[in-house]
Each structure stands twice: as structure tokens, then as C-alpha cells.
Amino acid sequence: MSAISTEGHPDGAAPQDTLFLRMLLALGGVALLAGLAVALVDQFTAPLIAEQQRLRTERAVFEVLPGATGFRTLRLTSNGLEEAPSGPGADSLYAAYDAAGELVGVAIIGSGPGYAGPVQAMFAYRPACRCITASRILRSNETPGFGDKLGFDPEFLENFKSLDARLNAEGTALAHPIVAVRHGTKTEPWQIDAIAGATISSRALARAADSAANRAVPAIERHLDRLTLDASLVGARNGQPGTGF
């Protein structure tokens, strides 16, 4: 086989090498421009997305805790609870108050592995009954027609009207884990009667409730006296945090 001639080329490189170099430079330029465009779009939309998430979270708090007119955003720390900026956060919870400044309940968030990814939900914890009284799906990719019933199936939602979330004697964890059981076999107040044909999705929501309660309820109960009356929230409905904690 004869060698490729480079005679007459300005830098002595083979024509194929020059073409490859040009293509490489062109692709690199396109990739660079695409990267810059993505970065600019992300920078422009990030505040809008964060604001939408904040509004969705605020609506969810008032949905799971009807009667609330304002809430304060708190954050779980190694020392318990502390005031946090308004908006969603991985360790955020929301203490909600009525117009008289009385504590209505605390909205807590948990996540569990579902059929098509994690199922994230907000739950209403009411210290008065030591129970969860409502749920609201925040994020889910479950199968339409089955898994998406988590958010609207009336029979399934009955599970969350008085779901036992009492703590153990040490006050460190739930006395009984919140679990989903096969449809029609629920016998205990801490059990969730699964949706027929959507057991995996039902278990995901049970795990979300269990993880949220195990993480937040011990801290809520330890600081319950400091979560009560907060006059700065009377009449408010904007989610602004109270003064001091």
C-alpha cells in the first residue's frame, strides 16, 4: 500500500488530518455554545423555579392543615429545630397557626421509593392526637391509573385521617413503624391499607410517612412548648416566619 502524499500542503499534514481537525474544532465550538446557552437558561429560570416551588409548598401546607392562616418555616438540625428562610428545603417543616395564633399542626415532608422513582409527599402531623391527619403528593412518577391514585383515591386517603404516629417511651422514634399492608387486611392504626393493584406505590407513600414522622416528630414533641402561641402570625397567610424561636 502506498503512503498518502502530503506534497503541496502548507504544513505538510495529510488532507484527512486537516479535515478531522476542522471537524473537531467545529464540534467543540458547538458544544461550548450549547453549554453556555444551558448555563444562561438555568441561571435565568432558577429563581422562577424556586419561586414556583415555594408557592406549591405554601399551598400544600394550607391544604393539609385546613384552618391555618399562617405558618413559620423551621429546619431540623442536630440540636432540634431552628427558624429557616421561607421556601422548601430537604429538612424543612412548617408549623401552622390559626387566626388566633394557636398551633394547628406541623407539615412534614418525606420520600419513599416507588414503582417509577421516589414518591415525595407532605403530611400533616397534629400533636393533639399524635397522629397524621392528611397527605399531599408533591412529586410522583407512578403509573397513571394505578399509582397516581395515591393523591385522590377517597378510600386510600381515609388512611391519613388518623394515622398513628405516637413516639416510643424514650421519645426517640415512632412506637410503631408506619407500614402499608395488603388491601383489606389493615388491623392497626399505624397501618396503611394499600390500593389494590398499586401495592408498590402504596408502600412508597407509607415509607415516606414513616421517614418523615421518625425524623420530625421527636423534635416537634421536644419543642412543643415553643411551637405554641405565636402572636406575630395572627391574621397572617403569607408563610412569613415568626419572630424568634
How would you describe this protein?
This protein is an alpha+beta fold. Helix content is 33%, strand content 23%. The chain has a seven-stranded antiparallel sheet. It has a two-stranded parallel ribbon with strand order 8-9. Strand 3 and strand 4 form a beta hairpin. The relative contact order is 0.15.
How would you summarize this macromolecular structure in one to three sentences?
This protein has 245 residues and is an alpha+beta fold. The protein has helices at residues 15-64, 154-157, 199-222, 224-227, and strands at residues 70-77, 80-83, 92-97, 103-114, 117-126, 131-139, 163-164, 179-181, 191-193. The strands form 2 sheets. A 7-stranded antiparallel beta sheet has the order 2-1-3-4-5-6-7. The chain has a two-stranded parallel ribbon with strand order 8-9.
